Amino acid sequence: MNKPLKWLEWAKQIQAVAQTGLAYSRDVYDLERFEQLRALSVEIMREYTNVETELLTALFAGEDGYATPKVDVRGVIFQENQILLVREKAEGEWSLPGGWADIGLSPSEIAVKEVREESGFVVTPTRLLAVLDNLKHNPPGPYHVYKIFIACEITGGEAAEGVETSGVQFFAEDDLPALSQIRNTDEQIRLMFELKRHPEKAPVWD
Hints:
It comes from Paenibacillus rhizosphaerae. By secondary structure, the protein is α+β, with helices and mostly antiparallel strands. It is 37% helix and 27% strand.
């Protein structure tokens, strides 16, 4: 389990309080205070990350409405005891195909969409494997994320790179490549192998 960075957790909590307050408060003075809190959260992130204030405001503090965790959906596909991974163009490391959930699509529909876009394969979802909280498993990041892992079976298509991927390959458990840890950790990939070996086990969740 990863030990959270206190400054990052504080910044995210301040941002969440500010965002929710701005969504529901009607008092002009309270709104001003919540704007100050949001600006403070951006200032904390700016101090420790060296990311420009404008970009932080857009990515980290640019949402409105009640603050909730983001949802990341990953498709888990096995073939002859090897797991399907795609190489991310952004950093050249590997991950399960997947990404942020889109409005209007269910988790299983997201899994199908992301696998097709990132690997070229057409799949059918078969089983929910895990719902994990990134605060408990992944390296520290700017967002609080729930990660949903869905088992899928290939029904068509062929291996093909996507807009965000530069490689598509199956890997054995004892021969995993460098993983994009913010997307999926070694521990999470090995959990997928464990659930593959023991399909009778219930889905894992935090």
